[in-house]
Amino acid sequence: MAGSLEDELGDILEKSRDGKGWTQSDLARASGIKASDVYRMERYEFVPDENILQNLAEALDLHAPSLIAIAKGRWVPQPIEPDPSPFDIVCLDLFVGTYPVKCYLLTCKATKATAVIDTGGNPEAVIKKTKELNLQLEKILLTHAHFDHAGGLELLDKTFHCPTWIDKREPCPSGSRDLRFLEDGEMIKLGNLNIEVLFTPGHTSGGISYKVHDSVFSGDAIFAGSMGRANSSWPELYSSITQKLLTLPDHTRLFPGHGPATTVGEEKRNNPFFCRTA
Ligand SMILES: [Fe+2]
To answer: Which residue pairs, CB below 8 angstroms and at least 24 apart, start in 246-254?
Structure first.
């Protein structure tokens, strides 16, 4: 499930500035470079040399070697080993317009009970895959209500007649006739599996992750080499990642809503936001 990263240098700079409440001019002043260069970096038009990247990292409290590796295209996470636990994960690469998003089919091997984690914006592809694999969907689990993650809900609900779960603090998505609400630490049964709900807000006010054995479906909280956009709260998102996700064992697999799968250990070693603190 390795692949190109969701976030480039420009995204990392913008999200990091957001955490400090800085404008592009503030970053330019703090790192001693031109504001027009910051502008070009954030528009993916310019990747500076390593000295400038070092200055940017120091100004933004990012881990410089990790930032440089990502900016220069030298790092993607290692392909993850399949979890030896009694379930199968199928990753679906879907698109909302031209924007790629991932949703996942989680199946208990013993019972074939299946949940889809996020619907993507292309529910036809989810339905096609479940038919191909002869799976009967029993549950729809949403990490959050953004359209690219929940936009396919209505058709999946009509097709599979199954309940949908979401955190109680998240805005209610339309399309489910049986919407159920979750709290941090709650367990959801799927066949013989127990799925734990981890409250990981900050990207949205009710963002959650789903943990089954040593695999976590983390929505838009953390990406390989970066973090989600802090739409509701930057400190809360940072804390969700450092306290709820990166405290899990290093071999824990992370399946984000965008970009490649990774592990806790990979992110602790290579994510410029978290190398210093995890
Ligand atoms: Fe999102």
So the answer is: 246/274, 246/278, 248/211, 248/214, 248/216, 249/214, 251/214, 252/214, 252/215, 252/216, 253/80, 253/83, 253/214, 253/215, 253/216, 254/216, 254/218, 254/222, 254/224
